[in-house]
Amino acid sequence: xxxxxxxxxxxxxxxxxxxxxxxxxxxxxxxxxxxxxxxxxxxxxxxxxxxxxxxxxxxxxxxxxxxxxxxxxxxxxxxxxxxxxxxxxxxxxxxxxxxxxxxxxxxxxxxxxxxxxxxxxxxxxxxxxxxxxxxxxxxxxxxxxxxxxxxxxxxxxxxxxxxxxxxxxxxxxxxxxxxxxxxxxxxxxxxxxxxxxxxxxxxxxxxxxxxxxxxxxxxxxxxxxxxxxxxxxxxxxxxxxxxxxxxxxxxxxxxxxxxxxxxxxxxxxxxxxxxxxxxxxxxxxxxxxxxxxxxxxxxxxxxxxxxxxxxxxxxxxxxxxxxxxxxxxxxxxxxxxxxxxxxxxxxxxxxxxxxxxxxxxxxxxxxxxxxxxxxxxxxxxxxxxxxxxxxxxxxxxxxxxxxxxxxxxxxxxxxxxxxxxxxxxxxxxxxx
Length: 432
Ligand code: SF4
Fold this sequence. Notes:
The structure is a single chain. This protein folds into 2 domains: about 20-265, no CATH class; about 340-430, CATH 2.40.50.140. The protein is built from 10 helices and 13 strands. The longest helix is centred in the first third of the chain and has 29 residues, at about 80-105. The strands form 3 sheets. Strands 7, 8, 9, 10, 11, 12 and 13 form a 7-stranded antiparallel sheet that branches. A 4-stranded mixed sheet has the order 3-4-5-6, with helices on both faces. Strands 1-2 form a two-stranded antiparallel ribbon. The chain is globular. With about 425 residues, the protein is of the alpha+beta class. About 35% of the residues lie in helices and about 15% in strands. A hairpin with a 2-residue loop joins strand 8 and strand 9.
């Protein structure tokens, strides 16, 4: 990595005012996969489609959390508790599944249908519950769940008490996404582990995965878990007792070695190097294109598809507009190129809809809604009045659609950059 390094960091209050500047494991991992992917997602803030396989993990996680939060009767036996937890899991899982499916189908960023096998993912949730029952059983016996060693902890006298004591910390399943992130005191890094068990006397961090652990993303698990360990240490709790991933599509738990002091130092250095490179503390446009060219890594064991530079290109949201991928975006058609926007309107644009953000209250009472178009001239995002975007969504605009927007107007910034807005005469045509 290159670029100037600021000698002083922005203070925590600056990060509190600019929470989008905080780093996370996801940003580190994205940059490591490919700087071009990072640029697309975190420097241009282009929106991406969502697919059902990335949504179903929340169904598994939330249904497990709701079951873990249950309070059994004092007189319950382990067999009764297990049977009731399984019954409750089926109810919670079905409820979460239906809610997530309905939200997915209604989401304009969704690509493809909700074509998932209920039984397959319910089996994963059941495996997660079996791992949790193992924790409860070990708590009852006073032995460590991974080593079997007798623990010097106060004994529990009932199954119900063991269930209560073993209950892991997790974010509130009803809280808005990312609202319960833990932030390092300096403000620059945040994270949100799935489960934290504390009944053994130490903290064990568990990451839940609704997969068998066979994708390129699964190879990032050590990096992810060690980032949680970094967060623990930076927040003053020292290293955790253990780091585990539960790939719920397979039997065994995955245990990750705790990071060495050198690994933690290296992790912190890599966060600051990326902050400096991306210019995150110098204003959000202060980065060099040269530092964020498409240069993908090669995930071990995965071959790229024909014409792609790396196996990562198959899942990269920039692939349609990246010269290193085999895919290509639609032509500019009857519109103008994003790289040749006129300084006077009206003009038209054509492209494939990549995805939408969430409506955002930019200032009191003023709501905007961001969306991204892709065509052969590149990617461009637009933050328009939310009611205009809502109208286009109602008219059929959704991720993957090829659209034409007519009678647009430019807004030339002092920097010379051009923003594009709709006008009263703007119309949407769905081309395919
Ligand atoms: S398509 Fe491949 S090379 Fe291009 S930005 Fe994405 S990961 Fe990098």
